[in-house]
Structure formats: C-alpha cells, structure tokens
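Quick one, T. Sequence first:
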Amino acid sequence: MKMMNDTRLELIKNAVLKTQFKNNLQSKNRLQRNSKAYKDFMKEETRQIEHYKSLDDNYNVWSDSEVFAKTHYKESYDSTTKFDNEWN
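Structure tokens:
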C-alpha cells in the first residue's frame, strides 16, 4: 500500500512540475509576442507577404489564345489557320 501511495505521489508531483513548466513557457511566449520588436517584425513580414502575393498576379495574361489571336492578328491568324483541317 505504501508503495502505491509513493508512486501516486510521484506521478502527481511530475504532473505539477510539467504544468508549471508549461505555464512558465507560455508566459515567456506571451511576453515575446507582446514585445514591440516582435510586433514590428511581424508587421514587416506581413508587408513582404502581401508584396509577393501582388507580384503573382499577371494582368497581361490572356486565358484564351484563340480570342487573343483573332482580336489582335485577325488577317495573319486567318491566313495561317485556314488550311489546318485539310491535311488529309
């Protein structure tokens, strides 16, 4: 019986130490997240991400190449494609 109580108390002690360690770590993280340097870093990081997202947008792309060719190169396009279906 004494051995069971000793192991039980040891388990409780380890659980308390683990909880205290976790709480201490969380409070340190909270302090870091609230610091001015961290907030400035995250603001700059967010600005850079938004900048790179804007670079991914290509406003000069045409989704349909046939429409583009007919719109801008009508005569050349027609003269080069009129015999495409007459190969055989």
